[in-house]
Amino acid sequence: MEEIKKIKNIVIGAGPAGRLGSFELGKLGEETLVIEKKYIAGTCLNEGCMVVCALTDISRFIRNFKRYNEIGFIDGDINFDFKTACDNIKKTQKFLRKLNQEENESVDNKVIYGEASVEINDEDKIIVTVKLDNENELQKEEYDGKEILSFEAENLLIATGARPFIPNIPGVEYALTSSDVLDLEEVPPKLNIVGGGIIATELSNLFSSFGSEVKIIARSEILKDLEPEIKSYVVKKLINEVDICEKTDVLEITENSIITDKGEFEGKTLIATGRVPNSELVADIVDLNDDGSIKVNDFFQTSIANIYAAGDVTGGITLTPYARKEGISAARNMAGYLNKFDDIIVPQSLTLDLDVSFTQKQDNVDEDKIEDVIIPGLGGPHAFWRILRGETGLTKVSLNSETEEIVRASQISPSSIDDTAYLAFLMNMGIEKEDFDDFLEVHPSTDAYYKILKIM
Fold it and tell me: Looking at the predicted structure, is the pLDDT value of residue 250 above 90?
């Protein structure tokens, strides 16, 4: 009979929620085992944010080179090798995975790789069985030739994340997803991207800069969460090389084309229509929401009190920093340090030729009392050579005219990610317009929030 080892805390999934949650447990002196199916650090490092950031660095270099060519003080051509770029991204990912594992092990956590399954036995104990992946480069032990290990967990955290949603379209097996980008041998000459959200837009920007003829095909509209002025700037000045087909239905996908209700378009197809939670592991054990995500309470407990869940697998706001915060909160609850996760104002971003960042209050917004101010972006670092083309970006702030609280803020600028993150933090603290009277900016800067808030 297979030996079952007792472990106080088991975390399944080592993406942002699981990695930070397990690290927090380790810091609190809690015995913790982390089980990861494939790659530590999850979608963000291996298929998502970091891949987009790496490729965007190249994209911006190419576009800046073209811009300087047009102005006339640089002359020449660039030959871009996409496969070599992807190979070097993979090398960097491998290095970062090792660092992430070492960080978790530094607090005496154990990390193993393999496919986990979960059951509740006849004594209501949580049993986790792992089919080991002994081929994984970061698997530390061979376990005396064992292929399967079993554990009894006092507490279990499910942090299995999410995966690309694949719509039911004839021929969808011919389509790529964001998970396939690094495995492409070359830049597709023509690429049709199905979807209208952030991922679809970021990928359209990348591949158009690399030389693809790109179409975005959206069933409704693209970037529906952006303010109208911000969306207009994105479409007209940041992804203006992309052909956008809104309110378009996809009828069929073939190996080298896509058929829609507005015609057939040549090229490879990439699906970017959202993500679906990886909740199958405990779908028959705990309660799920209507969208298949795991239902949790304010303490990240599921319908079984000592099974917790955090991150994208719980639905809601599916952002890396939010997942990290959820994982840490869940870990503290598992360790007996009870804390509720309060709703906060969350900053978000879109990584293009210029960063697009935005944040807003979700509740109790009286639109009749909203005062908007919009100004062009400032010509600071990484924006000077955009001035003559009128492409320095845009900033919009919305205030409640009675309370003078900031209600919404959006910025397109080289510094917008940091600017908006700090502004969201101040909004969570209840800052008002007059609090900016004594604000002194670092100069030069492309942050225009302070300028708006001082003149309103």
Answer: yes
Beta strands in 13-138 (DSSP E): 32-36, 110-120, 126-132
pLDDT tier for residue 342 given thresholds of 50, 70 and 90 = confident
> 274, 290, 292: which is closest to 282 by C-alpha?
292
Task: Characterize the bridge pairing of strands 275-277 and 263-266.
Answer: unpaired
d(CA 292, CA 279): 7
Count of other CB atoms within 10 angstroms of residue 1: 4
Domains of the chain, first to last: 4-45+88-163+276-334 (3.50.50.60), 166-273 (3.50.50.60), 348-455 (3.30.390.30)
Supply the pTM of this predicted model.
Answer: 0.95
Percent of the chain with pLDDT over 90: 92
CA 306/CA 313 separation, integer angstroms? 17
- CA 140, CA 366: separation in Å to the nearest integer? 56
Phi, psi (rounded to 5 degrees) for 374: -125, 130
- pLDDT (tens digit per residue) in 366-407: 888 999 999 999 999 999 999 999 999 999 999 999 999 999
Per-residue pLDDT, 365:
81
Q: Residue 21 and residue 62: Cα distance in Å, rounded?
A: 39
Query: Average pLDDT over the chain, rounded to whole?
Result: 95
**Phi, psi of 373, deg, nearest 5:** -130, 130
The tokens for 63 are 């576009």
